Amino acid sequence: MQQDLFVKICGITNMEDAQHAIKCGADAIGFVFFEESPRFISHRRAAEIVRSLPKHTSKIGVFVNADLKFVRDIVNHVNLSAVQLLGNVGPDDLVDFETSVIKVFRVGKDYDVEVMKNYIVDAFLLDALSEGTYGGTGKTFDWNIAIKAKEYGRIILSGGLTPENVEDAVRFVRPYGVDVSSGVEAKPGKKDQGKVRDFIMRAKSIPVSYRDDEQL
Q: Domain 2-211 carries which CATH code?
């Protein structure tokens, strides 16, 4: 079936921001379970927020170099529908994983898209490489690489997206979805409601559809 652009608002830390994003038309909410992030949320708080969200909303946990047992425990505690994994997981680690898996690759100038071919996952998220940080940097990367990466699966475009550039990004890459965190924040961990609304509206204003059988 034809599916419209998938929009994920990531780095959610509170109920108000989550519910506002859904009201504005977000397809997915992202929770960061990485304690060094300014957008970190505890599994208890995330579970409370998840219970308030519609069933059709994707609830995605973001993990960095996490032990897979820890990931599975959080999935069960929070009732996540998908996990977004960055770091030390190889293709064999993700075989028969219990939930949908989004594998993150950070794209720098020497990035080789062929590293993606060994991964059998539900989607790839491409973010800008920034040494010493893991996401939420506000930096973009060469979107031509994202176009090449579509050969290997569904691409969720991230890295430096804002209400001002998301339309250009979607037109150029025509990705499966887009992901934003810092680009719609008032400060780290707190969203700007106007920016969230504008980002989702502008992202979904571009007539892009994706043929697929299921959503994350």
A: 3.20.20.70
